[in-house]
Amino acid sequence: MDYLVNHIEALVFCSPKPITEGEIHDCLREMFDADVPEDHIANGLSELKLRYAADNHSFELVKSGGGYQFLTKPAYQASIGILLKQQSKRRLSNSALETLAIVAYKQPVTKSEVEQIRGVNCDYAVQKLLEKELIEIQGKSEGVGRPILYGTSHKFMDYFGINDLKELPTPKDFQTEENTIGQENE
Question: What is the pTM of this model?
Answer without folding.
Answer: 0.50
